[in-house]
Amino acid sequence: MKKIILFIFSFSCTIIISAQDDVEKVISTLTKNEIEGHIYFLASDELKGRQTGSPENKIAAQYLANMLRGYGVKPIPKVNSYFQKVTLQKTSRATKTEFKTENILSNNILMITTENTNYKGKAVFVNYGLEEDYKNNNVKGKYVISIIGTKENKDLRAALSKTKEKMKLAKQNGAIGMVEISTIDEPTWVKMEHYFNGDKMNISGQKKDNDGFSYSWVNDTKEEISKLFIENLEADINITIKGIKESAIASQNVIGYVEGSDPKLKNEYIIYSAHYDHVGIGTAVENDSIYNGARDNAVGTVTVLSAAKNIAKYPTKRSALFILFTGEEKGLLGSKWYVNHPVFPLHQMIYCFNSDNGGYNDTTKATIIGLNRTTAQKDIVDAAAKFGLTAIDDPAPEQGLFDRSDNVHFAIKGIPAPTFSMGFTAFDDEITKYYHQVTDNPDTLDYEYLFKFFKSYVLACRNIANNPTTPFWIEGDKYYEAGKKLYQK
Ligand SMILES: [Zn+2]
After folding, report:
1. Pairing of strands 390-393, 365-369
2. How far does residue 365's CA lie from ligand 1's centre (Å)?
3. Which residues are in the CB-under-5-Å shell of ion ligand 1?
4. Which end of the chain has fewer beta carbons closer than 10 Å to its terminal beta carbon, N or C?
5. What does the angle CA 205 – CA 171 – CA 212 come to, to the nearest 5 degrees?
6. Strands of 419-422's sheet in order across
């Protein structure tokens, strides 16, 4: 009896000591000043918003690589460099967009597909462009004209989500192009135009899914075009979209690793990742045109740097792979590239602990998108609690955040991959005030809070990387089966 009590006592003592050890290790490698230094540099005006493909994006990459070098993190094996080249293709904005029918002329064209177009000929009105609308219409070899959305739903988001289906139907019925008529207010139109018609990027060699089919929206606030087509059902149109050009862009992910300390567990890797690019220079607001991206995602970048510094000094049982992605803002391109060009086999990557940030509105919390979707949940909750923060899961699942950051490419492959973010409890004004705005500057951040936030992340990294049990998806998760396949469980 006595012996047992003694045994239990000494056992719980070791646990407390080792846990304390990890907390001390975290505290010993992180300082608030150093964190501020990184963020002020990465989000400085001189880095011009770190747009993918820009010289300043390369400077940011060079800075990160040299931080890893300084910490003693090893470069990518064989190539002996911290840079993974990512080859992208840029599609530039059209120089001319014009739609004409009868005596109506409009330059308000929104490109649903990005395609140089020159069409002069017949266009047939197909109502909302849904299945039943093609029943009595022969559209073969002609353009189709329809109204955006559906009769029941005039919501813009819903209308946009219908475009794929509508394009498919038009193609199936033999149409050669499609124009939809919208009546969108000026301020919303300007924003949408900026997003849809602006420069676009993709992984080089990627095939577009429209195969040359041209599809655009024409804004018709006076409702002249719709009136004409509703009355006549068919009319001649002339649509010109020209000047769209493709060019190659070279960018880079920044990668390094630290070997684990346990002879067996070191064959398992944990990925610590964040994107370091941001949206660059854009529309000026109060004479400021630099979108600095302090929250998005200098903060995430520094969470990874903090983990790299700590783990390089005090290696964990499992190995660590640090990846700083480019191209996130262009469509999660750096991470997409990485999962198709991994530097170590993907089945050895047992977890991906990503960090991405839009903003925060609660400095008592850390918000982990996907917290309750993997078995590492407790390791993260405990770590945050050690530094006075409460870890919570996604407060706005309807936004689909889990599938909107770099972690998703790893999840699709089966790797458990949540995203660690600053505390937010709703997508409210406090978030939108800074999210992708010129106001996302380093001097608007609460560094006392960030210091706790970074320490929580690094301790969570250590907890997961030292835990004898390998983390996995919770049974029934969307990506559970993919995980079983990847690890042959
Ligand atoms: Zn962003």
Report:
1. parallel
2. 20
3. 296
4. N
5. 30
6. 200-203, 83-91, 246-258, 319-325, 269-275, 349-355, 419-422, 365-369, 390-393
Q: What is the pLDDT of residue 2?
A: 46
Q: Return the sign of the alpha-carbon dihedral for residues 90, 198, 355, 486.
A: negative
Q: Is 445 in contact with 32 (CB distance < 8 Å)?
A: no
* Paired tokens of 308: 């790299």
Question: CA–CA separation, 45 vs 258, rounded Å?
Answer: 32
Q: How many Cα neighbours within 13 Å face the side chain of 312?
A: 22
Domain assignments of the chain as residue spans, ordered by start: 26-90+249-487, 96-244
Say yes or no: do domains 26-90+249-487 and 96-244 share a fold. no
Tokens of 60: 């940011």
Ligand 1 centroid from CA 329, angstroms: 5
Class of the domain covering 26-90+249-487: alpha beta
Which residues 6+ apart lie within 8 Å of 89 measured at CB?
Answer: 201, 202, 203, 204, 205, 206, 246, 247, 248, 249
Question: Phi first, then psi: what are they for 341, rounded to 5°?
Answer: -135, 60
Q: Please tell me the pTM assigned to this model.
A: 0.86
CA–centroid distance, 404 to ligand 1, in Å, is 10
Mark 422-438 as b/e (b = at least 16 C-beta within 10 Å).
bbbbebeeebeebebbb
Dist. CA 278 → ligand 1 center (Å):
6
Compute mean pLDDT per 10 residues along the chain, 489 residues long, and list them. Answer: 48 52 96 98 98 97 98 96 96 95 95 95 96 93 96 92 96 96 94 89 84 94 95 96 95 98 98 97 90 97 98 98 97 97 98 97 97 98 98 91 96 98 93 93 98 98 98 97 97
Q: How far is the CA of 437 from the centre of ligand 1 (A)?
A: 10
Distance CA 233, CA 208 (A): 31
Q: Which two tokens mark 373?
A: 């979707």
Tokens 């079983």 found at: 484
| C-alpha of residue 309 to centroid of ligand 1, in Å | 25
Report the interhelical angle of 377-386 vs 447-466 (nearest 10°).
140
CA–centroid distance, 330 to ligand 1, in Å, is 9
Asked if residues 423 and 362 have their Cβ atoms less than 8 Å apart, the reply is yes
User: Which CATH number, 3.40.190.10, 3.50.30.30, 3.40.50.300, 3.30.930.10, labels domain 96-244?
Assistant: 3.50.30.30
Distance (Å, whole) CA 328 – CA 233: 44
Residues 6 or more apart whose Cβ sits within 8 Å of residue 417: 271, 351, 352, 353, 354, 370, 407, 408, 410, 411
